[in-house]
Every structure is written in C-alpha cells, then in structure tokens.
Amino acid sequence: MPMGNILKLEDLLKPDCVPDESAGGENWRILHGDTLKLVKGFQPGIFDAVITDPPYASGGTKQNERNRTTNQKYSSMKAENALPDFDGDNKDQRSWTHWMAEWLYDVRKACKRGAPICLFIDWRQYPSITDALQWAGWIWRGTAVWDKGNSRPQKGRFRQQAEYMGKQRTDADQPPGVLPSGCVPLWESPEPHPCDRKAAPADEGCHPDL
Description:
Elements: H1 9-12, E1 21-25, E2 28-32, H2 35-40, E3 50-52, H3 63-66, H4 70-74, H5 93-109, E4 116-121, H6 126-135, E5 139-147, E6 162-169, E7 183-184, H7 202-205
Parallel strand pairs: 3-4, 5-7
Antiparallel strand pairs: 1-2, 4-6, 5-6
Helix pairs in contact: 5-6
C-alpha cells in the first residue's frame, strides 16, 4: 500500500485503535502505547520489514538480579545523570517468551508476504526467542552476529561483546540478492541509552532482500 512521505495514523491503525500519543515526520512515525494493544490495531499487510530491539529481561542469573531497574543493571552513570528506566525488562524467562510470541504473532499479520523480521537479543534469551518467533508463525532463516566492539573481560570466559540478530520471514520463499556479512559492523549512536552500547546500521545489517 503506497503511503507517501507522511505516515498517517489512519493508514497504520484500525479506527478503534488509538495510541497514547504519536509524533511523525517525513517517512517516520513513533507510536507510544501498550505493545500488546497497538500491534493488534495495525492494518493488515502494511509493513515491508520489522527491525526491533525488545527488552531482554536478562542482565542477571537470578530473579532478584533481573528485578533491578534497567539503570542498575546496564548503566554505570551516577544517579543524578541517569537516563529514564524502561519497562518490560523484569520478566522471568517463561513469561517473557509468552509475551514475545503474543505480539510477534500480531506483528506478522501486519506484514506483507515475504517481509523479514530482524530481532536483536543476547545469549541468555537466544534459545527463548527462537521458540517465540516460530510459535508466532515466522519462518526461521538464521542468525547474524552483532559485534559491539567493547566489553569487560571475564575470568575463564569469552568476552560477552556480541549480541545476536535472529532473521525470519513471513513465508518460505527464497528472496533474491546476496546478503552482506553475517557479522554486523558498528556505528556510534548519536543518542545516549541506559544500555550504553553502540548500534548497528540498518543499511549494512538489514538488507532489503533479507
């Protein structure tokens, strides 16, 4: 469906779905609201691709460690300089997997046939995200490695400076074209974030023929 330069709410959402707030400009729009409600309200078959970095609900081996705020888990900033915490990062593994599968199912219905999804995740939740994506009906197509380029050393273990991007499609058709390297390069993010990490450029790691 052609959309022009401004993404209008009536083109994206069904009439009975209203976000808490939204803002947009040329070729972009941000919707603020409950994920489980918003994804059910998307018009069917409108998205060419999904690129997302959901809360990992990770950052600890025990539940009391995962229940800390995102700044406590991921940031070394002092309290007076800390960025706002974000929600959804305190689930246990089973509830997180169920939550992921639920919204991924609805997002798939909002995508065009053949649309890819690229979803960033860390090593702890990698097994769970492969289950959630396939339960939601996506076709598994492999993994790319995101080398963040920096991490603290750990005695007796490899540095945990890599995260992973699961790649799936809405159908089993083989796309045309050749993809770039499966190890995604980096660029410096212009905006600070509690997780304090670099970002991967979409034009390098997420090819339109993925």
